[in-house]
UniProtKB/TrEMBL annotation:
This is FeMo cofactor biosynthesis protein NifB. It comes from the Bacteria. It comes from Paramagnetospirillum kuznetsovii. Residues 20-271 form the Radical SAM core domain. Keywords: 4Fe-4S, Iron, Iron-sulfur, Lyase, Metal-binding, Nitrogen fixation, S-adenosyl-L-methionine. The keyword Lyase applies.
Length: 453
């Protein structure tokens, strides 16, 4: 990766898989207005229970957003990125979006700024994005064929008029491509989000990937459709299913060689706060933060120094792990393994506390991040919940091994009955190092020597 690109993404948890182990992001919900309707979206402005895009506990003014950013930065030294992702559209609600960045930049000019948009109003604001030093823009692009788009978008609102069907989807597509091309010309990094909707655009996303790569997109993030009737979305109410984890991985694997892929997205709320995979938003509602929070940049500076040392150490460990696999494993089947981690690139979480699993693929060529699986934490009040274990087992479909820092005897036995091995011999080790050592023991020369002995 060119040095100037690495400098932009090295501490952005969404644009760098490595960075998401160390850095946090926050979204401020200052842009409620939206100019399209998506069949997978139902915006909610006072919801604390759902974890999906378009949902927030409270709408903020730009001044309130700046106050909240200062409060979070004072408590979360990992914070590196401020994003505006709704709950509507950041470009359509540009007045609030731009005012927020002006307010925050007065307090914290060292933060990275990014926005997320459906792209319809994007071409109107590309120059202003550059003026605000916003060098990361995410566009949701689900189609390049208006006939498919008509199945996803009931209507768009453009230049004072509502358009429906194929005509609306065509206008949206043209504006998205124009916006992407202009961002590339400006040197602004773009991430393209695509929602995988089985039976509608799943195979079509291969063509989307080709189109966005040709126009200079930096990353392509294919996300699973979140479909639940309780959310009140058109797809949820109609019974449109989301993809299974194996289907999502299969599509992502087919896209290899096209635009770079993001596999670590958590499909965050519009008011998300913290590391990816955790949400501290309810700790920083307006009623819980000071009227005039004080901000000292020193803890964030010191934290970055720690991260640099940790990164260097981890990179050495990863290189050593790859060398071990190359030396000890000649040919063996690829394996998917799940990891319980709280961040830092280490196996550092109790099985019962995991709300998600990071998934890695390992073979003789090395260890690669594959994705993540959401699951309710098994332990509630110190006791295991059998119903939640069923959810965990469903999340681990297709995975035979889970690495944990610690696990109780009962859940370990239950996992074994389900054909899943819990590995607890590598607590607090780097993920790649532990996986490589385990794989070499099972499938490498050391395993053969042990059998002969």
């Amino acid at each position: 990766m060119p040095a100037h690109i690495w400098d932009k993404v090295k501490d952005h948890p969404c644009y760098s898989e490595e960075a998401h182990h160390y850095f946090a992001r926050m979204h401020v919900a200052v842009a409620p207005a939206c100019n399209i309707q998506c069949n997978y979206c139902n915006r909610k402005y006072d919801c604390a229970n759902e974890s999906r895009p378009g949902v927030t506990s409270e709408k903020l003014t730009p001044e309130q957003a700046a106050r909240k950013v200062a409060a979070v930065a004072a408590k979360v030294p990992q914070l590196s990125v401020l994003g505006i992702a709704g709950p509507g559209d950041s470009m359509f609600d540009w007045r609030h979006t731009s005012a927020t960045f002006r307010e925050v930049s007065k307090l914290m000019p060292d933060l990275k700024y990014c926005v997320s948009t459906n792209g319809l109003a994007l071409p109107d604001h590309v120059d202003e994005l550059a003026e605000h030093n916003i060098d990361h823009v995410t566009i949701t692009i689900n189609m390049i064929d208006p006939e498919i788009g008509a199945l996803i978008y009931p209507w768009i609102y453009f230049k004072g008029k509502r358009y429906t069907g194929i005509e609306g989807a065509r206008i949206l597509h043209e504006r998205q491509m124009e916006g992407l091309e202009r961002l590339t010309e400006k040197g602004i990094l773009t991430k393209i989000n695509s929602v995988m909707i089985p039976g509608i655009n799943d195979q079509h996303l291969i063509e989307v990937n080709k189109a966005i790569k040709a126009r200079g997109a930096f990353l392509h993030n294919v996300m699973p459709l979140i479909s639940d009737a309780a959310h009140g979305t058109a797809f949820g109410l109609s019974g449109q299913r989301g993809p299974k984890p194996a289907e999502l991985k299969d599509l992502q694997d087919k896209l290899a060689g096209g635009a770079n892929l993001m596999r670590h997205c958590r499909q965050c709320r519009a008011d998300a706060v913290g590391m990816l995979g955790e949400d501290l938003s309810q700790d920083f509602t307006l009623d819980k933060i000071p009227e005039a929070p004080s901000y000292d940049p020193e803890p964030r500076r010191l934290y970055r120094e720690v991260v640099e040392r940790e990164r260097a150490d981890r990179n050495k460990a990863v290189a050593s792990a790859e060398a071990e696999l190359a030396e000890t494993v000649e040919e063996a089947p690829a394996k998917l393994v799940a990891i319980c981690t709280k961040g830092g690139g280490r196996i550092n979480q109790h099985f019962g506390h995991a709300k998600e699993f990071q998934v890695f693929e390992v073979d003789a060529k090395g260890v690669r991040f594959s994705g993540h699986r959401k699951a309710d934490n098994y332990c509630v009040g110190g006791y295991g919940d059998d119903d939640k274990l069923d959810v965990v087992l469903a999340a681990l479909e297709g995975i035979e091994t889970v690495f944990v820092a610690k696990i109780g005897r009962c859940p370990k036995d239950d996992l074994k009955k389900a054909g899943i091995e819990a590995v607890d011999q590598y607590p607090f080790e780097y993920i790649e190092t532990a996986i490589a050592a385990w794989y070499a023991d099972r499938f490498g020369n050391r395993a053969e020597t042990s059998v002969i002995a």
